[in-house]
Specification:
This protein is mostly beta strands. It has a five-stranded mixed beta sheet with strand order 2-7-6-5-4, with no helix packed on it. The protein folds into two domains: 6-296, Glycosyl hydrolase domain, family 43 (Tachylectin-2, Chain A), CATH 2.115.10; 303-323 and 348-481, Trefoil (Acidic Fibroblast Growth Factor, subunit A), CATH 2.80.10.50. The protein has one helix spanning 350-353; strands at 6-7, 21-22, 25-26, 33-35, 38-42, 48-51, 56-61, 68-75, 78-86, 95-103, 119-125, 136-139, 146-150, 157-162, 176-179, 183-190, 193-200, 212-218, 239-242, 248-260, 263-273, 279-290, 293-296, 303-309, 315-318, 362-367, 377-381, 387-388, 391-392, 394-398, 404-407, 413-416, 427-431, 437-441, 454-460, 463-468, 478-481. The longest helix is centred in the C-terminal third of the chain and has 4 residues, at 350-353.
């Protein structure tokens, strides 16, 4: 079943993972849903979490009916919620029911907030090897048909079809068994493939839970779902998507949320976050695609880096004079010198060059990477500045200084002598589906609201600027390198 834990991939700087702030405690989280500028997820037992920005999560979402492991999906201008009532071994048995209900909004404070009467779409009688619990929804973008996968280790994962206009079971639809040896399943479609995500391992045992998320794919929504080496999930196959980490375990209840073209996140829970008393918590990670398979990306944590363009591989740097390093020339032409012991040469230091830098704003440019002080950046989370799905905003400063990268009103990039916390000095860093990164200023002077349009962009091999994000152009993509 969508077992009792959900966590927003949490971490504090001192930990191995970035913890969402607030109180991201939930079990069996639904796929994330956006409604009127806020994010929602629902969990086992009723209720759920709300976030204004995707970074800070607190209780407040409202879902009647109790039960377990809900999922939610926006269809047209309404939201369909599906959940399991009993089953999953809860209450001592596997007799369960799966129900659907609708709402015009997910905001419990809205005058339009009202859930429709729940309708049963399938059940398990407790006698056969089947468990009607842990439903996951897919609205097929190619056909408009609505599918549900459900089930647990007690029997099979089954597939049924619902009417996307009513949420009722399609008349005459017969369930189909598509997998075993997993639970908390979900479906998604991408580039001609249907993907079945299942949660494998043991649930509900805190720091000893072995939950992990596996996947298979098929050209048909009805399967067969095969993994990367051809094993059918109906015979126990499944390729790993995410398992335990250093300070968290029990990854389960996958959900996919598309932020933008090439920007996707996966939501799930950790059965136990070791930094948060071993509680079940909501986790959100970048969703990366590798050779046609989904892989959990890494929440960006900050550190010291060169920031290199995908366009050519040149590095972001201060537009200052290149200071040559002094060296006793070595060469093949000096045979006598080659007989002397080799000595290490120290890297150029900040103290050796910073006196020659201007005191005011210094523009940014892109150049050949040489591990020089004007090319080294420190990226630091700023938790108090808010955030977005999966991370807080970051400040980007020249390593060893307080000189900060900033956006200008002319949609250019510069560096200011000292970081002040202004919104144009805060940066949104997201791992893209191909593993590269998008870097966006939180705000651009003269433009209203939070920026979600313009990113750091290579207008030329040596010219950084701000331009409209385009996933199909390497000009929009960057890499953080520690070398």
């Amino acid at each position: 079943m969508k077992r009792l834990h959900s966590i927003l991939a949490a971490l504090t700087l001192a930990t191995a993972a970035n913890a969402q702030i607030g109180a991201p405690y939930i079990h069996d989280p639904s796929t994330l849903a956006e409604c009127e500028g806020k994010y929602y997820t629902f969990g086992t037992g009723g209720g759920g979490l709300i976030s204004e920005d995707g970074w800070s999560w607190n209780s407040g979402a409202d879902r009647p009916g109790g039960g377990a492991a809900p999922d939610v999906l926006k269809i047209g201008d309404r939201y369909l919620c599906i959940y399991g009532a009993t089953g999953g071994g809860l209450g001592g048995g596997h007799a369960g029911r799966i129900l659907t209900m609708w709402n015009k909004t997910l905001d419990p404070k809205s005058p339009y907030f009202k859930w429709s009467e729940a309708v049963e779409v399938c059940y398990s009688d407790g006698m056969e090897d089947q468990d009607a619990i842990d439903p996951g929804l897919l609205l097929d973008p190619t056909t408009g048909r609505l599918w549900v996968s459900y089930g647990t280790y007690f029997g099979t994962i089954r597939l049924i079809e619902l009417d996307p206009k009513t949420g009722f079971r399609v008349k005459g639809n017969k369930e189909k068994d598509i997998a075993i040896d997993c639970e908390a399943s979900d479906l998604m479609y991408r580039d001609g493939w249907y993907y079945l995500l299942g949660t494998h391992g043991t649930c509900c045992d805190g720091v000893n839970s072995t939950y992990n998320i596996v996947v298979g794919r098929s050209k048909s929504v009805e399967g067969p779902y095969l993994d990367n080496v051809g094993r059918d999930m109906f015979h126990g196959g499944g390729k790993m998507v995410i398992s335990a980490e250093k300070r968290a375990c029990g990854a389960g209840h996958f959900g996919r949320f598309i932020v933008d073209e090439g920007v996707e996140v996966m939501s799930f829970h950790w059965e136990a976050d070791f930094e948060l008393s071993g509680r079940s918590t909501l986790a959100i990670r970048p969703l990366v695609w590798k050779n046609g398979w989904p892989v959990a990306g890494d929440n960006f944590k900050g550190g010291n880096f060169s920031i290199e363009s995908e366009r050519r591989g040149y590095a972001l740097e201060l537009a200052v004079d290149f200071v040559r390093m002094q060296q006793q020339r070595q060469g093949w032409f000096n045979r006598n010198q080659m007989q002397e012991p080799a000595k290490p040469i120290a890297n150029q230091t900040l103290e050796e060059v910073k006196a020659g830098w201007p005191e005011g704003d210094i523009p940014a440019r892109i150049g050949d990477y040489m591990y020089r002080p004007h090319q080294r950046w420190t990226v630091t989370p700023v938790n108090e500045a808010g955030g977005y799905l999966s991370n807080p905003y970051f400040k980007i400063t020249i390593e060893g200084t307080d000189r900060a990268l900033a956006a200008t009103a002319a949609c250019e990039v510069t560096t200011v002598p000292a970081y002040t916390g202004a919104d144009e000095q805060l940066w949104r860093i997201e791992q893209l589906t191909d593993g590269t990164y998008r870097i966006m200023p939180k705000a651009i002077p003269g433009m209203e609201g939070i920026n979600t349009k313009y990113c750091l962009y290579s207008a030329g091999d040596s010219t950084p600027t701000l331009a409209v994000y385009d996933f199909n152009s390497d000009n929009s993509k960057w890499n953080f390198c520690n070398r």
